[in-house]
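Example 9 (inverse folding). The structure is encoded as follows.
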C-alpha cells in the first residue's frame, strides 16, 4: 500500500510535470528556430534540421541504454543528475557557435530526455496507489502537452525577438526550476527498482505481450503524426485558414491535447489495454472522417480538435500497461521496459512524420488523414490481440486459484 501522503503525492507529480514541460519544450523548440539557426551558423535549413532528427535518435538510443546503465542509482538521485545533464546540454546549445557543437549539445539533451521519460513514468507510478498509476503518469505527461501549447511558441517568440540562443537560455532557466522542484518536492522514499540482469533484459524483448505493446505504441501514437506534422499546411492549403489564424487554432489544438491526456489517464487506471482499444478505434474514425471534412472550415476544425483530443489520450494507458506487464513478467526490468516504450513513441513520431511526407509527395496533402487512420486502425487490431492475451492470463490465474482453493 502506498504510504506517501496525498499532499506530497501532488507536489511530487507537479515537480515531474515541470520537468516534462522543460523536456517537451527543448524537444520541439528548434523547429521554430531553424531559419535563424541556419542564417546565424551559415548552413542550410536541411542541415539545421539535423537538430531535430539527432534529438530523436538520442532519445531512441539513449533511453534504454542509459536507463540500464544507471539502474543501480537511486531514482531521485538519478533524476537530479539527469536534470543537471539537461541544463548543461541546453547551456552548450545556447553558447554554440558552430553547427557540430550545436548537434552535440542536442544529443546530450536528448540523452537526458530519454532517461527522464523512462524513470519519470515509473516514479510517478510508484508514489501513488496502484489504481491511480495511469492518472499519475498522465499528470506527468501534461507537462509535455503544456509545452506544446505554451513553451514552444513562447520559446520561438523569444528567439525571434532576441535571437535563437536566448530561446535555449529560456529552457535552461526552466530546467533549473525543474531541478530545484525535484530536489525539494520528490520524496526520498521513492522505491528503488532492482538492477536488471542481462538474461532478464533478453526476456523482456522476447516476451510477446511486451513486444506487442511496443509495436502498438509506435503505430497508435505515431499514426496521428502522419497528419499532425503537416497540420499547419493542411489547415492553410486545404481548409483555407490564414497563417495567423492557424497559429491561434494550434493553441486550441494544444488545449484539447491536454484535456485528452487527463481523460486518458482516468479511463486507463484499472484496465488500460481495454480502454486503449476504444481510444484507437475512435481516433481512427476521426482521422478517416477528417478526409471528408477538412475542406470545410467549420467541420474541418471540429474534427481537427477531436484529433487533438485523442492524440495524447492513449499515452498514459500505453505507458501504464507497459509497467504492468513488466512487473508481471520481468519485474527487475521495469525501468528498461518503460525506456523502450519511450523509444517506441519516438520511433512512431519519426515513422509517422516520414510517412506523411511520402504521402504528400506521392498523392497529396489531404491523403495524410486516411493514411494516418489506417496506421491507428492497425494499432487497434494489435490491441485486440493484447486483450486476448489478457483474457487468457485471467483464465489461467482463475484456474490456478481454483486448484489452490481445492488443496
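The amino acid assigned to each position is listed next.
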Amino acid at each position: 500500500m502506498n504510504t506517501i501522503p496525498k499532499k506530497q503525492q501532488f507536489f511530487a507529480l507537479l515537480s515531474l510535470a515541470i520537468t516534462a514541460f522543460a523536456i517537451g519544450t527543448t524537444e520541439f523548440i528548434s523547429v521554430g528556430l531553424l531559419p535563424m539557426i541556419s542564417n546565424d551558423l551559415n548552413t542550410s535549413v536541411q542541415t539545421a534540421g539535423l537538430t531535430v532528427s539527432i534529438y530523436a535518435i538520442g532519445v531512441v538510443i539513449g533511453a534504454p541504454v542509459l536507463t540500464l546503465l544507471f539502474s543501480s542509482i537511486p531514482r531521485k538521485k538519478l533524476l537530479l543528475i539527469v536534470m543537471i545533464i539537461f541544463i548543461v546540454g541546453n547551456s552548450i546549445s545556447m553558447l554554440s557557435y558552430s553547427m557540430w557543437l550545436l548537434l552535440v549539445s542536442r544529443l546530450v539533451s536528448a540523452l537526458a530526455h530519454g532517461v527522464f521519460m523512462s524513470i519519470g513514468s515509473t516514479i510517478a507510478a510508484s508514489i501513488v496507489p496502484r489504481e491511480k498509476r495511469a492518472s499519475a503518469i498522465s499528470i506527468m505527461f501534461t507537462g509535455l502537452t503544456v509545452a506544446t501549447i505554451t513553451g514552444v511558441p513562447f520559446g520561438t517568440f523569444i528567439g525571434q525577438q532576441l535571437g535563437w540562443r536566448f530561446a535555449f537560455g529560456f529552457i535552461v532557466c526552466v530546467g533549473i526550476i525543474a531541478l530545484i522542484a525535484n530536489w525539494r518536492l520528490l520524496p526520498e522514499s521513492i522505491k528503488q527498482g532492482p538492477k536488471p540482469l542481462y538474461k532478464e533484459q533478453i526476456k523482456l524483448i522476447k516476451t510477446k505481450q511486451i513486444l506487442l505493446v511496443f509495436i502498438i505504441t509506435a503505430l497508435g501514437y505515431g499514426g496521428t503524426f502522419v497528419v499532425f506534422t503537416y497540420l499547419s499546411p493542411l489547415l492553410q492549403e486545404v481548409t483555407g485558414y490564414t497563417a495567423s489564424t492557424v497559429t491561434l487554432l494550434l493553441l486550441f489544438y494544444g488545449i484539447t491535447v491536454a484535456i485528452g491526456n487527463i481523460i486518458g489517464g482516468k479511463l486507463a487506471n484499472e484496465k488500460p489495454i481495454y480502454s486503449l482499444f476504444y481510444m484507437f478505434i475512435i481516433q481512427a474514425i476521426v482521422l478517416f472522417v477528417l478526409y471528408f471534412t477538412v475542406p470545410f472550415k467549420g467541420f474541418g476544425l471540429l474534427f481537427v480538435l477531436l484529433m487533438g483530443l485523442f492524440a495524447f489520450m492513449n499515452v498514459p494507458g500505453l505507458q501504464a500497461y507497459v509497467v504492468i506487464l513488466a512487473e508481471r513478467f520481468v519485474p527487475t526490468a521495469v525501468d528498461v521496459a518503460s525506456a523502450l516504450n519511450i523509444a517506441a513513441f519516438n520511433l512512431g513520431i519519426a515513422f509517422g512524420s516520414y510517412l506523411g511526407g511520402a504521402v504528400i509527395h506521392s498523392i497529396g496533402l489531404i491523403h495524410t488523414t486516411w493514411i494516418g487512420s489506417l496506421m491507428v486502425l492497425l494499432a487497434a487490431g494489435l490491441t485486440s490481440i493484447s486483450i486476448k492475451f489478457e483474457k487468457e492470463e485471467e483464465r489461467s490465474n482463475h484456474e490456478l486459484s481454483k486448484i489452490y482453493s481445492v488443496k
